[in-house]
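tl;dr need the bound structure. longer version: we got a ligand (zinc ion) that a collaborator sent over and nobodys looked at where it sits. i said id run it. heres the input, straight from their email, havent touched it
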Amino acid sequence: MIEDIFKNMPFFKAFLNAQNGRNFSYLIISEAFSASVVAKLFAQALLCKDMCGKCENCQKIALGSHPDVKIFPEKGRLLVEDSKKIVEESFVRPIFADKKVIIIQNLEDATEEAQNKLLKSLEEPNDSVTYILTTASPEKVLPTIRSRCIKIQIPPVKNSDVAPFLAGDEKTKTLALAIGGGQVAKTIELSKMENLADLVELAIGLVQDLSSSRQAVVWSKKLLDEKPSFALVMQILGLVIEDALALKTNKKAKIRLESESEKLAKIAGELSVKCLVRLSELIVEAMRQLSYNVNFPLIVDNLVMNILEVKYLCK
Ligand SMILES: [Zn+2]
């Protein structure tokens, strides 16, 4: 079970050891899927010390129907109305267990007003209430909230621990592990993508094969066709460049896309450090334009023409 991966990690044991009758609020920092799994595990540990998995507390939590474990927001992002509900909820005594756990997920999406409304409850929690907050981007959580919580950063998970949960063929699994970088949910999602190997090929091709303005049209078209996966292609392209840089600066470098090491070595042999650094700047620029909703074909054209220019200048 995926839960077991987390239960065996040092942060989890530290959490269990910290439960000496004192009541803290916690902020779990991790991608959403892992954070949600860990938040529920924390809730279970708070309501059943042995996490026996058999008692009514454990079973109700597993089913998501424990009356004293409340998860917010009920849908979408946390709004001030949700925060009001949370404050009201915190005054209702637990009905089944001897404690109540309020889980507030994806705090980075919450409005500032909603976050502000939670402050007082987090500062002076009711004795019977424990708050467990989660976020993928702690910098988007109000500093006043962050300072009131014990922060728990979930470290990346080892490849060997995620591997049994992956779908897809061996090549896809290998690539998913490399690109997922220890993020459980992301790695599992990537392993379900039938075209992951094609996207890696596309990213590598952009650096390696694109070399004349005649080819620009072809490569632009390829990128346009992958519009839904553009951000992912950019991430893979970033990895390709990082790996090529690592190979250039340190022969024994540990590279992420190991299965592509031959192609990466070729790229490292052909392009200068300066050129690779400039290429990584182009990715940042393309992602920035994407977040500003710049016309997509324009982003693609700029990117392809700029890659050509960089490669030409670095020759
Ligand atoms: Zn139990």
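gonna send this back to them w/ a short note. The chain has 16 helices and five strands.
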